[in-house]
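Quick log. Single chain, no ligands specified.
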Amino acid sequence: MSYCVNPGCASPCHEKIVQYCQSCGATILLQNRYRPLHPIGQGGFGKTYLAVDEHLPSKPPCVIKQFQFQTENAESYHKAARLFKEEAVRLDDLGQHPQIPQLLAHFEQNQQLFLVQEYIPGKTLAQELAETGVFSETQIWQVLRGLLPVLQFIHEHQIVHRDIKPANIIRHSAAPMPLPSTIPIPPIPGKFSATQNTLKLAEMKTKILENVETTQIQEVVRDLFPPPPTLKLKTASDSKSPIVLIDFGVSKLLTGTALIRTGTVVGSPEFMAPEQTRGKAFPASDLYGLGVTCLYLLTGISPWNLYDVVRERWVWQDFLTSNPVDLHLATILNRLVAPQLNQRYHSAAEVLQALNKVLNTDTNIQQTQVQAQTQTPSQTSIQAQASKAFYGSHPQTTSETQPPASRLSIALSRWFPALGQPLNDKLISRAGVDYIPLQQMLATRRWQKADQETGTLLRQVLKKATSQYLHPQDLKDLPCEDLGTIDRLWLKYSNGRFGFSVQGQIYQKFEGDYGAFCQQVGWLTYNPLNPLQSFTFKLSAPVGHLPSRIWVQTGGKWWKHAEVMAEKLAECQII
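-> predicted structure:
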């Protein structure tokens, strides 16, 4: 495979390895060495390509960043080229840090500027969020501890990143731990044998985790039966920290030249500090971006919707119905995202100091609990420590002895918080419909069954036969109470990814363009013979993908269902 990076090329993609573009005739190899394979990213100022280095026998992968500037103004271009070389030197220094991609080359070719950097295998935090759902508190602590030293390093080198966001943070891939077909489980002290424990885990996995990714099951197993303390779990690259920060240099280069119009914003507005919209950037601006990144990872909700512009305050904690956060972490995050610059942390070192203070306090409490457990061992103390490790609180122990299987339920509830909490939802129905089955299906992430149940409930509310499809105009008769209950359940247990209100807001965003709406939520614009095959019943589906439209009639103006539903949601003041 080869790819032509000439901006004016009409057909840049080539399935075969070629030396010259068969469309525009441009040379494929850059510097007679680097072969672009395909684009992996694009912004307002250039593209990023996956490439290979053909000078080395193994042809290792690398990343090429192409900066595209208007070349009519020769003076501005020469200034950009000079600053580009200066920035490349600084990027080379930064690349010595193990959590920053190494700069391999920089050059100018055909009046275009290129950077070649180390390829980092792995997934971005944005991809992780889309595939496995919102992050737990423990994962957020790990992100902060992993990334703050990197920010401290670049700020000490007088560099401000300017574009901290989940898509610019990669978790370096590690060798996956294989999941055996039969998991050996040591007996838990108590009345259950190892065989019984195995059966219980299998039963749980079948009935509760049927839609869960294999990696999540592995994490549950590791929580239940951790390796001995002396065992070192080796990653794919010991020299690399699991978290790597990418996309350096572009913002500094652009803002240091006259190649962009006055008022142009460099960065991602959702994660951008207020002062950046006015053309200013400080180390605290990166800390703001890190804080907003954490809020997004915790909730799965766009940062735009996590800030109340009327009251001028963050409301992200309102979206944590099934993902609790410790007060210490909440305090740190709120200070990171303070709108006023003087109310934020001044440096990454200051945030690290706050983190270490909390972690040291927790360590002392854990040691005290371990000593108490050694003196008077009980299953209650084990549960208390496990609860504290996840929820960040310190529950009081009671004299009531917990059942031996509680360790299993604690480990499961860590990854599926809804299983370990009372399902205290307001199941309001003016039509007298029972929403408990839908509640339980969503709480256990049985998305396809929950989707089918949603269609059944809509028919029940509207007094339709079970096998009858609904006409878009039928939706006008939905009671607001029932529509609100269904929507709240989908929102809560999908962490804000699914629900009629999510779909309604997307439909409004595209101003009634049903084709654009379908493209955004991952739907086909037509009804296939088997409608179920066109939907993805996983949490990794696009935002707004569920509930599906399988309950809508296929004749007439069936596509009007989105318009009528959006109008009904607005009438009920749900959106």
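The chain has three domains: 2-118, 122-174+239-350, 436-571.
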